[in-house]
Amino acid sequence: MKPSSSTLMALGAIALWGTLASLGVSLSHVPPFLLTGLALLVGSLIALPLSGFKLQRWRVPLPTLALGVYGLFGFHFLLFVALRHAPPVQANLVNYLWPLLMVVLAPVFLVGLTLRWRHIVGALLGFAGAAVAILGAADASIQSSTQGGGWSWGYLPALGSAFIWASYSLLTQRVPAFPTAAIGGFALVSGLLALLCHVLMEPAAQLSLRDGLLVVVMGLGPMGAAFFLWDRALKTGDARHIGLLSYLTPLASTMLLMVVSGRSLTWAIGLAAVLIIGGAWLGGTKKQA
Fold first, then answer.
1. What confidence tier does 66 reach under pLDDT thresholds 50, 70, 90?
2. Over 60: is that where the pLDDT of 77 sits?
3. Orientation of helix 98-109 relative to helix 117-136, angle to 10°
């Protein structure tokens, strides 16, 4: 059976998000809010051809714009705070609770959806796979240079970022219908807010030509086109199934990082692939009549 268009669009967004970590490593010397702001501004430009170069098509009711800024800006703001105040690997793992939260919260935010046993089991399998993928690929030297285990308040904003993206993804289906091109407005306002945070909270920085090119790639890909594909997938597909497919994001991100860094595949990545794909398949299986 051929995959639906919503599944293909969700997989497209996931594939683009899988490149974000590798691009982020290449731009790790750029202050995070500056990087986020510039990338989101570049990403907003994708909406121009989608709207026929008519900015009035970006216009949405104020509550809808607030929801978009809540999702795009709030998610990145809390994630960067978490990565500064908690061990990065563990904070990233907590952040990847968002696909699980998306599946579990779907019946809470969306009318007419119910959570069945296969969704719960599939979500747990997917989260286990994400944990194996991230922790299994963690560099021992990085782990040894960061703070050790135990509680850190930075886990709270990491959990908050996970909740924001899950709830944003679901709530976009509760507000009045808006064109996908309006995501450009969300990204524009969010990018400007991120740049304001850079001015207020981060030291000034100069970008090289290479940095600028990579920022453009990031903006057009994982922080641009991915948002538009994600929005279309959510508008036309089952949020529970799409949430489960999202577990492919940490797997794709980790595997690409291993290729870029020259590291070989491990048993952990293989196990993660089985858990993630199995969870997505189980959660996406339709109930038989």
1. very high
2. yes
3. 160
* Closest by CA position to 284, among listed 252, 242, 241: 241
pLDDT at 44 over 60: yes
Kindly report the backbone phi and psi dihedral angles of residue 100, in degrees, each rounded to the nearest multiple of 5, phi listed first: -65, -45
Q: How many residues does the chain have?
A: 289
88 close to 146: Cβ distance less than 8 angstroms: yes
**Exposure b/e, 148-185, CB count within 10 A at least 16 = b:** eeeebebbbbbbbbbbbbbbbbbbbeeeeebbbbbbbb
Q: How far is CA 72 from CA 43, 64, 119, 144, 244, in A?
A: 11, 12, 26, 32, 20
User: What is the spatial distance between Cα 15 and Cα 249, in angstroms, rounded to a whole number?
Assistant: 7
Return the C-alpha torsion angle 254, 255, 256, 258, nearest 10.
90
Give 197's contacts (C-beta < 8 A, 6+ positions apart): 33, 37, 77
Both tokens of residue 246? 């999202």
Give the CA count within 13 Å in the CB-facing half-sphere of 55: 5
Q: What angle do CA 101, 105, 106 make, to 5 degrees?
A: 115
Q: For residues 226 and 248, give the distance between their C-alpha atoms in angstroms, rounded to a whole number.
A: 14
Q: Which tokens go with 223? A: 């922080």
Instruction: Please give the Cα distance from 77 to 130 (Å, whole number).
Output: 22
139 falls in which pLDDT band (50, 70, 90)? Answer: very low
